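call fold(seq) -> tokens
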Amino acid sequence: MNFCPHCGARLRPDHLFCASCGQRVVQSSPSTSIAGQGSPRPWSAVPGVPPVAPSATPPRRPVDLTGLLRGNWVAALVVALVALVLAFGSSAALIWMGDPDHTSTHDRLVFSAIATASTVSADAVGSIDGDYVAYEGAGQEDFSLAAAGGFVPFTVALLSLGVAGWLFRRFTRGYPQVKHAIGDALRAALVYALLMMAVVIALRGDEDSRVYKSDGGFGDESETASFGASIPTTFFLALLVMFSVLALACVMRRDWLGARMLKVHAFVAAPISGIATFLLMLPVAGVVANLAFWLTVKDDHGADDELDFLQTAAIIIGSLGNIGVGFLGAGSGGPIGNSWDAREFDSDRGAEWHRLSWAVDETDAWGLWFAIPTLFVVLAVAAYVVIRRARASGHAFANVMIWAGSMFVAYPVIARLASAHGAVDGDDATSELSAEGYFGLKPADTLLLPLIAVLVALVLAAVTGALDVRRIAASMQQSPGTTPHPDRVPPVTPGSWTHPSGMNPSGANPSGMNPSGANPSGADHSGVDRSGVDQPARWPDHEPPTQPGHVHRP
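ret:
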């Protein structure tokens, strides 16, 4: 057997090309003769060379790293470009609609790049270095200031990543194996991360920005400033988030999986569908929250007079998903507010949290109470999707409970990503400043919603039949003096058996018939005389028959 000199794979006889790597090969023929001889002879028979037995194992096949580069790069590029265009285009449209003050076209493009990077949870960062005069007559002092913060705009993130996952499934639906799809998922994630990193590198603000000059500058020409999305964080998170989304899209397909993975798929696919449904329902919950507020709020608690209609609409549309997270969290009883921790010379920290009832009283918007029924509707829809998808596998109840349990991990992460956070650090010649803040759902109370999800899952499982409540109740409920459940009937003991025909506990048969129902006279009802046939005798009074229809013979 010959082996390929390029990759080490076995070569088929008379093949001119390797079936594994495609390289051209020249196979030696068994009739090849040694130079100077007319008949073939093995190489080990060359004079002066000791005979060596050929190795029974083929040579080790080298790792072909170039195989990682072979794949459907066109599909990967299309998926990455579509996701990036949707994220950047939606962010830019909302920013132009909001028309922020003191901004140039370049500033708005920078803000669009920051918003695009925030869809994968990358923070915005900024820094200022320069000199300032603390008070009149004092000399200049050096200072530096660095800040970071942000939040995930769920509406734009769900739009871009959801379309990317749908496109990826369309491109890979004809693949024969899951490993090819996973490879393309990694390629698409890599292209997406590189493109997004290029955007945040190209679009950054500096000291010439109108925003900086109007709000952040100190008026000294020696100052230098820079702000934008974090470059390394953007690349890493874009790669991780996109690959995770596309890999989950691969897991949802059954035809790619082997026997072992199919067992895992039976308990994973439906809960993932439930979490995805919950995420997609967040903007819907945000729409309900806005309608419930604006239709019931009084005029003196309306929008800020400084914002026009388009600016208000841009803020609402861009934050629908985040508002939905807070609305559902408030409906579960969780408080919403902010916390801060600022340290300059003395420590200054605090927090202010309020529940749904406080918001209703402060705004006089009674429609906010719709947060409670909206929460139950969203959880019921997600649980129903899980039960319906898992019904074919026969594990509907197990799947819906796995989904409810996974919400203990998923929802705190969702609430954290939807909340705004920030931090600032600075120093000069005499002091240091360090502060951080948080606005959103109180992290310690985000487990209230998963607890309600468990209750909703149990109720919906009982209603749809995924949970047999009657069987469970019958197996658990038993009152003294009542007939026990058939599964728990005590075993028959000698002397305690009673025949259904009416035999009393002592074993006497008042009817005079033997247990088999035969006529003692020896004749049956058909008129045939069976007196000559041995009749089964009665069993002793202290012992019942061993089987139905079988009579003990003395």
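The chain has three domains: 1-31, 71-133+140-256, 260-476.
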